[in-house]
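Schema walk-through. Below, the input block comes first and the output block second. Nothing else is stored per chain. Lengths vary across the set, and this one has 137 residues.
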Amino acid sequence: MIAQDKVFISFISTMGRVLLTESGEGTVMIEGQLHQVANAYGYHLNVLCLSDYLEITTSRDEEQIDHAIIHAMPGIASLSRISSVKTLVHQVDSGLTIEEANEKYCYGTSNLSFLVARYRRLPFRYGICTTCVCNLD
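--- output ---
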């Protein structure tokens, strides 16, 4: 696994967690947005999305590089957060690099970075990823 893979896995897991808990969108839309971002960066995902559970298997060049399980309780949808995710997906499609996306949306001043910071403070039982490099507890 290369450094970019770790950044991507952390980023896609965080995006999945945010979509599941904050967007208010159905599981099919969540899966579609995760696949759209993965395809833009040259990765393949196998995603199982249920109402409070997200399982993501990440592959690159026909090789499985990660398997993440995310448990999360959906909350109240926020239009500003939904807008942030839609903006992110559009920017990824327009050529935003994984490093820029990770910096801007996971550590910057966007609505998603606020959510990431909030998840970092939560104990394991509130949905922190269990099997990948993005373990945020």
